[in-house]
Amino acid sequence: MAYISAQKFESTQQELKGFEMGAKSINPDIKVRSTFTGDWNDAAKAKEATLALISTGVDVIYQWLDNASPAV
After folding, report:
1. What is the pLDDT of residue 13?
2. Using CA atoms, how far apart are residues 71 and 36, in angstroms rounded to an integer?
3. DSSP reduced 3-state for 4
């Protein structure tokens, strides 16, 4: 599983922690990866981050982006 957002703010870190806690409540051994693109609206960066995560075996991706969301 993975989480993609644009920047490391307190709110995105809290959301990531909640996402990870929820996943681990189902499977304590699950690995949650995260990445930050640096841009809320850059679809190319979001797509690049998504493909990079998929290449590592991630099969579920949650995102918190703006206009870049459709690229995930």
Report:
1. 97
2. 14
3. strand
